[in-house]
Task: inverse folding
């Protein structure tokens, strides 16, 4: 039996490393310090209570596996949690807690009696006579794709879903731009709780609706009832709280409800289109409450996540399309998930209207239409078309390997324009030129930038190309600014 904690932990890490991704490994396992092995129990030191909770929420099975392997099935794990790092005079304080056994879900037969909530609140104003949760059942964790863009929010959300009101993620605030999955995620938490803990009253409400209900309650003299109703909720999910900005009276009411729920160990989940610190028009005391728990952002999905999202959507609709088409879509739409979904829907519509398969040509054509419809910027494809016409070269040559100047120059100009006119990452730009890597793209962009400065002919060519994009001429001011800021 091993008794050197470092050796035991090193073995554990070997196992854990294979079970989880590198980022998680670095974040959650590298900071752990093995302390001792005694009585078949490994003690590990973790930097904080939060850290400990996170491990227990997310990695208990992985840890169990590692302990099984190194110390045997009776092996145990104990945490030493640093609660105060101390200073020169005072040593750090640590709290020791044994590892919880992986919990088994409660047997389905033992469903608790549903609690009947006597709502004194004028139910007509709640749009329903039943205690509806107002959740969309399609928003689940199963169909929420995890990526670097949402990992923290998703994991925290899942922790909250399993133990609402108990974790330190209370309130949980999910923030980020439109169409990035905030509503989906916070509803997934609600659905999960509803499906696993039937006795909990979960309520989803948009901030807009909350405001309207509040106004009606004032008008109808039912404010007390309104407040009482919300105070009975076990899990309050409130979407787009930025909408409360500037609505002083509603905020006041929300503040009281918030305090009551929080003090009674009820879970509060919120979303916002910006981080709490940027929520102007919000009372400070409310903002400070928002910061009690955890704020996690959702960002634009990266390429791999976009691929996974597209695949999931297609799978849900029972559609098959070739990988190259999926890849093309993922490389071409980089704004948000809602837009990706929109493109898939139109693709399917086009395919069924025209009775044809979804192939590259259809994808290109569809994307072109959508881009025109939504007045979006210039796309990779439109740039390629323009370059091919302008320089009278073939598409194959443009994308090919030839190093002749007649091919290299147009290729570099095309890359340069993509960098200027689109938000595509370098990797995606390279993709449109036969999978060239990002350093090739950087080189092209630099070469052209320098040439514009030093070579009147090149400058003229670029100006002509700028003009040939009619839309750019419409936004002349903006594109000139853009050009200035990137080349000076
Ligand atoms: P937001 O509330 O941030 O504006 P939504 O939650 O309404 O965004 O998401 C927009 C659409 O994109 C929804 O249909 C949602 O299901 C989908 N979506 C967003 N993120 C993901 C994801 N990570 N995985 C799967 N679908 C997603
Ligand atoms: Mg939303």
Result:
């Amino acid at each position: 039996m091993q008794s050197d904690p470092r050796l035991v932990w090193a073995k554990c890490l070997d196992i854990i490393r294979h079970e989880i991704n590198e980022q998680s490994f670095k974040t959650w396992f590298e900071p752990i310090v093995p302390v001792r092995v005694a009585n078949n129990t490994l003690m590990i030191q973790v930097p904080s209570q939060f850290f400990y909770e996170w491990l227990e929420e997310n990695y208990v099975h992985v840890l169990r596996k590692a302990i099984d392997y190194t110390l045997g099935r009776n092996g145990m794990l104990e945490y030493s949690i640093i609660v105060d790092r101390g200073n020169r005079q005072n040593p750090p304080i640590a709290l020791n807690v044994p590892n919880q056994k992986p919990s088994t879900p409660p047997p389905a037969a033992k469903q608790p009696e549903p609690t009947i909530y006597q709502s004194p609140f004028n139910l007509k104003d709640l749009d329903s006579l039943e205690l509806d949760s107002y959740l969309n059942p399609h928003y689940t964790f199963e169909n929420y794709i995890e990526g670097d863009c949402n990992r923290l929010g998703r994991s925290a959300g899942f922790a909250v879903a399993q133990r609402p009101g108990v974790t330190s993620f209370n309130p949980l605030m999910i923030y980020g731009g439109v169409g990035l999955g905030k509503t989906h995620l916070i509803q997934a938490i609600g659905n999960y709780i509803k499906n696993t803990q039937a006795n909990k009253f979960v309520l989803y409400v948009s901030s807009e609706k909350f405001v309207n209900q509040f106004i009606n309650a004032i008008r109808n003299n039912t404010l007390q009832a309104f407040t009482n109703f919300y105070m009975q909720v076990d899990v309050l999910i409130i979407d787009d709280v930025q909408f409360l900005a500037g609505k002083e009276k509603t905020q006041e009411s929300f503040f009281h409800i918030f305090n009551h729920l929080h003090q009674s160990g009820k879970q509060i989940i919120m979303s916002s289109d910006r981080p709490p610190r940027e929520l102007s028009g919000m009372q400070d005391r409310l903002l400070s409450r928002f910061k009690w728990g955890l704020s996690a952002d959702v960002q634009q999905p990266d390429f791999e996540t976009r691929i996974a999202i597209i695949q999931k959507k297609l799978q849900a609709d029972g559609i098959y399309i070739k990988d190259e088409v999926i890849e093309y879509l993922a490389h071409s739409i980089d704004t948000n998930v809602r837009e990706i979904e929109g493109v898939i829907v139109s693709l399917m519509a086009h395919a069924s209207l025209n009775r044809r398969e979804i192939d590259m040509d259809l994808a290109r054509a569809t994307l072109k239409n959508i881009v025109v419809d939504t007045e979006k910027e210039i796309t990779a494809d439109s740039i390629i078309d323009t370059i091919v016409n302008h320089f009278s070269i073939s598409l194959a040559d443009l994308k090919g390997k030839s190093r002749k100047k007649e091919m290299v120059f147009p290729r570099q100009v095309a890359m340069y324009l993509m960098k200027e006119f689109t938000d595509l990452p370098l990797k995606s730009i390279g993709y449109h030129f036969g999978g060239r890597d990002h350093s090739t793209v950087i080189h092209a962009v630099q070469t052209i930038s320098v040439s514009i400065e030093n070579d009147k002919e090149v400058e003229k060519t670029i100006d002509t190309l700028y003009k040939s994009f009619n839309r750019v001429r419409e936004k002349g001011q903006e594109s000139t600014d853009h050009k200035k800021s990137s080349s000076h």
Observations:
- Residues 182-183, 239 surround magnesium ion (ligand 2) (CB under 6 Å).
- The chain has four domains: 5-98, 151-297, 303-370, 380-487.
- Residues 337-353 form the longest helix (17 residues).
